[in-house]
């Protein structure tokens, strides 16, 4: 869409910036990534009262232009880089009227860059409740910029804001806040002259941030470095001096324009809620209850829509097979592409539900309390208070959980969380575990109430959590943190969640997943389909010939299903995947696996649950979920042709479960890790470490139990 | 006296900082020399702590709080 004016939204976290963005742009928005980093780039369009179109970009919330995290570093580079396609014509700074002092720091910094600016004074209704009176006209006059009081939640004042945007000046008219040049007079003068910038604050920011700004040439950057040495510039001291000078200006400004009735210090509602929610005992009980509810909901609420989605695709596949001419192209489309698409779409309910919860937890302010309560435990193992939610979400599915790690600001904490989340027992492992456990663990009760199979399954769940924590602890020492581990965090006042924001989040995340991860998953599915359907030379033709023999054509009439199953089994064995199973047999023999299991490992490479279906095909039975028992029987009675012993002994089944507990058998996770890290080395490293762990754990398990 | 030594409900006024890097971040968040700080609560496991400063709540670890010197 073509825009007449580009507007950037800038503000502190928790000021209602996203709500304002949603109100201004409605559903007319796009989420992407800023180039090279995994920071959401939210761009939307808004029609102004004069008929022009404004492109609105929602920049990450920050307390100052000096970045403390990667998200925050985006703000200055978008505002400063005039050659950037996102470079705004106008900045709307959104200020929380109940906390003007801290909010104004960022405003004065942005204003000094001399980009035209408008102030949106949000939460005016809350300020009124707190007996804060703001003389908006005097405030606007002192700053020299338009000030629009709004309440984004109640959608009040947003029309006036749009009006102000359409009337906005092309040149910056705001008053000076502080005398920037006194902070480093000679250095600023030299940078202005040598790098050819005319704004002194821009020059000062270049001095602070030149190392990370991509629009500077390496020569410019090293020149600035030399100038800094020449004039003895100390970045942090200069930042401190600047901040104090700015707060002096802000104090004077607020003294003249804002009055707050001093009320007796009665306990605020938010404080009373905190007394319960962060209580020594109740705090944890409530948190645990919320997690359990979330976990249950992701499981239970998604079951029905997931069933509908897979039923739809089964129906689509069978009708396409029916209506399209039979042939390799149809097979590729239906069994490769559509099957892959089905594997992508089926995740949508879980993603949407998990993000609905996360969005509510964030919106209400509870997520910061979770971080507050859990920080001490999680820090010990190299994680972050916010890692709890992805880890628990991992019990349902690693895909949305890894997407949710964006809430973790600290880079190292976030990477470790991403790396260990796939270890947690996800719902795709459940069919594999139930199948194997029922094969080797007797369905008996011990100590009256505990079912042994249930205990075995519970043990696998607990084991996965322990392994995730241990791996995280190891990674804490391997990974080098690039940012200092701060934990200075605002605890926002509790608020009701905004349901439109919740819906936006659910929609955005599902869409992002389908578009971004979908490509990889479909590609992998197609490759696996080719491997499992085609074989070298005449092998497939030979099978077709074999089933044209009289003995099979006769059987075809009496028992067509069993012929079909035998043929499928033969085909799979003779396909490239089947050959690969034989090829890898020497490698997996020490784990107790034969080539049939090898084939299942290969076909379930993209999704773990495929193991059950492949086993069904291998043992020539229908492998529907409802007919799991027939797979079990066949597998249970399978004998090793060399020794005559059962294939699935306790040792083999346990070894196989260990393999599935650790191995990264999930193309969706690989795709989503790439998307979240923007670097193929992360999913590659994850795949490698998980495979090594899987192999080691399996070999140990097999040899102990053998 | 350090901020980390205050008990829940106690107040103090910021005098100076012992860590330059931390002080930049804290000042940006409104925790400036001369501001009054009140310890609102301590996390169930004893760390971090929540303080009230400049009209809002901030949480920080004890190690970070120990870089704030009170009057």
Features of this protein?
heterodimer, A: alpha/beta, Rossmann fold, 7-stranded mixed beta sheet, two-stranded antiparallel sheet, B: 71 residues, alpha+beta, SH3 type barrels, 2 helices
3D structure, described in words:
- The complex is a heterodimer of chains A (706) and B (71).
- Chain A has 706 residues and is of the alpha/beta class.
- Among the domains of chain A are: 5-166, Rossmann fold (3-Layer(aba) Sandwich), CATH 3.40.50; 180-260, no CATH class.
- Chain A is built from 31 helices and twelve strands.
- In chain A, the strands form three sheets. A seven-stranded mixed β-sheet of chain A has the order 2-3-4-1-5-6-8, sandwiched between helices.
- The N and C termini of chain B lie close together (7 Å).
- Chain A binds chain B through residues 63-64, 66, 68, 98-99, 101-102, 105, 236-237, 239-240, 243-244, 247, 271, 274-275, 278-281, 283-284, 368, 371-373, 375-377, 484, 486-493, and chain B through 20-30, 32-33, 40-41, 43-48, 50, 54-61, 64.
